[in-house]
Amino acid sequence: MAMLIDAASAGPRIPSRLNENSPRRRLVILMTCCLGLILTAMDVTIVNIALPAIRNDLGASLTELQWSIDAYTIVVASFLLLAGSIADRFGRRKTFQVGLVVFSVGSLLCSVAPNARALVASRVLQAVGGSMLNPVAMSIIVNTFLDPKERARAVGIWGAAFGLAMAAGPLLGGVLVQTIGWRSIFWVNVPFGVLGLALTARFVRESRADRPRRFDLVGQALVIVALFALTSAVIDGRHAGWTSWPIAAGFGTAIASAVGLVLWERHHQEPMLDPRFFRSLPFAAATLVAVLAFTAFSGFLFLNSLYLQEARGMSASRAGLATLPIALALMVCSPLSGRLVGAGRARIALMVAGTAMAAGAVLLTALAVDTPLPYLLTAYGIFGIGLGAVNAPITNTAVSGMPRSHAGLASAVASTSRQVGALLGVALAGSLAGTGIESAHPAGFAAATRVFFWVSAGIGGAIVVLGMASTGARARASAKRAAFLLDAPPRPSAAPMRIGVTREVVHSR
Known about the structure:
Elements: H1 2-9, H2 23-49, H3 51-58, H4 62-90, H5 92-111, H6 116-130, H7 134-144, H8 148-179, H9 184-187, H10 189-203, E1 206-209, H11 217-240, H12 245-267, H13 281-311, H14 316-322, H15 324-342, H16 346-364, H17 373-399, H18 407-433, H19 442-448, H20 450-469, H21 473-487, E2 504-507
Antiparallel strand pairs: 1-2
Helix pairs in contact: 2-7, 2-8, 2-10, 4-5, 4-6, 4-7, 4-11, 4-18, 5-6, 5-7, 5-10, 7-18, 8-14, 8-15, 8-17, 11-12, 11-18, 13-17, 13-18, 13-20, 15-16, 15-17, 16-17, 16-20, 17-18
């Protein structure tokens, strides 16, 4: 791995016109960081469209299909915060490059998996690399775009890149599965990984925190235990019985780990996740909105990929094409939402997002095996508007108001929240749909999805409420108070907390 990174770092010097912090260089850095986001975001949707083919080829059960998604998501959610600390200590560029290499190697192993268990194991390795990409990339962006307006526009472009990746995944995945086979969906990651590796070595300067945070191993372990126990209990509950002792023990372990995490972080000198972040109402709301929105979206992707191909009998390419309204909505609404957020109108973006997600989900509660295609495409498009509008305010609200030295950690928390929502969505969708989506009867499959879509409609309403509550004067005042606490230097008499403003050490090549 080190040899690959060193090889990518070698090469001709950067042209002199890009040596300084010029607008062109900043744009190249932004595009390079967006490439890492595109890899991880596209991977989610492209795998979902291949689930029926994976099930047929590997003989995978519904539970194994859920784990092929959630094993990846659990690892990413668990290690995002640790990846941020590693980047602060050992260098952001180096960490980003290692992430690209590991993600690409994991993708190759996924493409040759002989059975479902091997696929899940390879997805875990892939996720280790994925956890090093998004939060580290956002930290690079925040420390590259110092002007608040430029930073807001950069975050808007970041959101648009996410929308583009989520839109391209089903379309590209459907074509690849139909023409080459499901294994090809993992091959496409490799050339993008190599390109990102070369661009990072060429244009991104190394940077790290002058006083990096210590690793919080206890907090990290509690996060892993909580997420794994919760996901296992939700996925296995419908088989083992919700009142059985293994499921009760799983939920109990998740709750105990979450409580232990809060207590540990409150008294730890250098917490992995500083509880004072959540004194900011906008930050706390953005975290909850991320969990809710991606719970609805990941469950939607999981169920509809199976519905289109197994209940309606569509080919993979036609199923991917059926998601075109979602793609168009994401491509159009993501940059528009970014502009609204940049203009200080995050409330409008969140209200549009929640309303559209609720409306689209309500339309999908009438899903049947013979639902007219125009009706279905309309519901997809409306739901896509909601997703396109929600991503930019999540990221911007999480990092705005925070000291620049904490922006990377704030972004990592927002990314973790998305991943937590994603793993809950897949687990919840499979559990609520129950045996209906495992049966061979198409009508029963369609009817089994309705409960989840009613839950998604409620989620959309909750996002509207949170959007209104987190964007008023009271919310802004709480963000200022939280930023002041985070930015305050440690008391001389106290042990070094290392949570104040950090000087950024930048190494020019």
